[in-house]
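Students often ask why inverse folding is considered easier than folding. One informal answer: many sequences map to the same fold, so there is more than one right answer. In these notes we will look at a single instance of the problem. The structure comes first.
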C-alpha cells in the first residue's frame, strides 16, 4: 500500500518536477538515440510525453476519470498536480481518490531511476531483446507488449529493464523497472527472454539538435568479445538465442579489407565469407583468434536456433551447435585419456608378465637345486 504522509508526498512531487524538467530539455533539443544492434537492426529511441506518467508509475487516467481536474491528457495532468501535492493529499484524506489506484507500489524506485534508465549506455547494457510475444509464455501484470527490451546492469549491481514500443518512426519507452540485484531480477528476465533472440548494441548515435552532426559511440572490438560471452551466459541460462549476424559480416569485411588485398592466397577468409553468404556453419578449429572464434560460435548457434524455430520446436533440452561440438570434443578427450590409460595398463601387464617369467625360471632353478640336495642327502638318511 502507498501510505504517503504529506512530507513524503511533497518530496516525491519535487523529484517528479526534476524528471519533467529533464525530459522537456531533451524535447527542446530534439534528442534522439539511434542504436545499431549486432543483429543488424537499427532503431531510434525517443521519450514521448504521453509515456512519461506511465514510466513514473503514476496512473493519470485514473485522475482524469474522476473529473476533479482540468487536464484531459496524461502529460498535462502530471504538470497540473506536481506543483500541488497538498491538493492531492487532501483529496485522498477526503476519500475522493486512492493512492493505491494513483501510484504504482514501485513509484519511488521508478521516479528515482527513470532519467538514468532512459539514457542508453552501450557499455552497461547487458542485452537488447527483439521481443516476440508468440514465443513467450509470460503473463505480465498489465499484459504489456513490447517490441524491444533493454536490460542494463549498473555499477552498483542494480538491474534496469526498459520496454520499448514502436510509435511512428521511433521506439518509445513504455515500461521502466529497476531491481536491486540480478537475483531479484532473475524471474522477470526469465519470463521476458526465454525462447527470444538477444543481441548487443555495437554503436550509439546521439543527436542533440535537429540537423546537427550526431555524436557516435562505438563499442570497442575487445569489448564486443566480452559482450558475446555475456550473451552466451544468458543463452545457456534462459534458453534464448544470440543474433550477431551483422557483427560477423562486419568482421569479415574488415578482415578482407586489411588482409586479402595484401595476401591474395588467403583463401580461408574468402571461405568464411562464402559460408556466411550461404548461411552455413563455420569450422572454428581453423582459426586461432579468440575474438573471431567467439563470433563464429555465436553465428553458428544463431543458425542452429533459427533452424530449430523453423521446425516450431522450443524444447529446452535441444542443444545448440556449439554445445554439441564441445560435448564431442570432451568425448574425444575422454577417449584419448582412456586410450592412454589402456596403453599404460598394457605396459604394466607386459612388465608383470616379464617379471612372472623371471620368477618362473627362478622357481624352476630352485626346484632343480632342491632335487640335487635331496639326492645328496638320501644315502645319509638311509
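Output (designed amino acids):
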Amino acid at each position: 500500500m502507498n501510505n504517503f504522509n504529506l512530507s513524503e508526498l511533497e518530496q516525491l512531487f519535487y523529484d517528479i518536477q526534476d524528471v519533467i524538467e529533464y525530459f522537456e530539455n531533451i524535447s527542446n533539443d530534439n534528442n534522439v538515440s539511434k542504436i545499431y544492434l549486432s543483429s543488424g537492426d537499427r532503431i531510434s529511441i525517443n521519450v514521448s510525453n504521453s509515456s512519461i506518467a506511465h514510466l513514473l508509475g503514476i496512473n493519470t487516467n485514473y485522475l482524469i476519470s474522476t473529473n476533479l481536474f482540468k487536464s484531459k491528457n496524461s502529460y498535462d495532468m502530471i504538470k497540473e498536480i506536481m506543483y500541488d501535492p497538498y491538493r492531492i493529499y487532501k483529496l485522498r484524506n477526503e476519500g475522493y481518490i486512492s493512492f493505491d489506484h494513483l501510484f504504482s507500489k514501485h513509484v519511488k524506485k521508478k521516479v528515482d531511476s527513470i532519467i538514468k534508465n532512459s539514457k542508453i549506455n552501450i557499455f552497461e547494457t547487458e542485452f537488447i531483446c527483439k521481443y516476440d510475444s508468440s514465443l513467450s509464455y509470460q503473463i505480465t501484470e498489465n499484459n504489456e507488449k513490447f517490441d524491444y527490451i533493454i536490460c542494463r546492469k549498473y555499477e552498483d549491481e542494480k538491474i534496469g529493464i526498459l520496454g520499448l514500443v514502436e510509435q511512428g518512426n521511433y521506439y518509445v519507452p513504455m515500461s521502466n523497472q529497476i531491481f536491486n540485484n540480478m537475483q531479484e531480477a532473475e524471474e522477470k528476465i526469465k519470463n521476458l527472454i526465454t525462447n527470444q533472440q538477444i543481441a548487443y548494441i555495437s554503436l550509439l548515435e546521439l543527436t542533440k539538435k535537429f540537423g546537427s552532426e550526431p555524436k557516435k559511440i562505438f563499442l570497442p572490438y575487445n569489448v564486443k568479445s566480452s559482450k558475446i560471452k555475456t550473451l552466451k551466459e544468458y543463452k545457456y541460462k534462459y534458453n534464448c538465442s544470440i543474433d550477431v549476424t551483422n557483427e560477423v559480416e562486419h568482421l569479415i569485411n574488415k578482415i578482407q579489407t586489411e588482409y586479402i588485398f595484401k595476401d591474395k592466397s588467403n583463401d580461408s577468409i574468402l571461405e568464411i565469407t562464402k559460408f556466411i553468404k550461404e548461411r552455413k556453419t563455420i569450422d572454428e578449429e581453423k582459426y586461432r583468434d579468440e575474438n573471431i572464434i567467439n563470433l563464429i560460435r555465436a553465428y553458428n548457434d544463431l543458425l542452429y536456433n533459427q533452424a530449430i524455430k523453423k521446425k516450431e520446436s522450443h524444447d529446452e533440452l535441444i542443444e545448440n551447435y556449439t554445445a554439441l561440438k564441445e560435448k564431442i570434443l570432451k568425448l574425444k578427450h575422454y577417449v584419448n585419456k582412456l586410450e592412454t590409460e589402456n596403453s599404460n595398463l598394457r605396459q604394466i601387464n607386459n612388465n608383470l608378465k616379464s617379471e612372472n617369467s623371471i620368477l618362473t625360471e627362478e622357481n624352476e632353478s630352485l626346484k632343480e637345486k632342491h632335487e640335487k640336495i635331496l639326492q645328496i642327502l638320501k644315502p645319509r638318511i638311509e
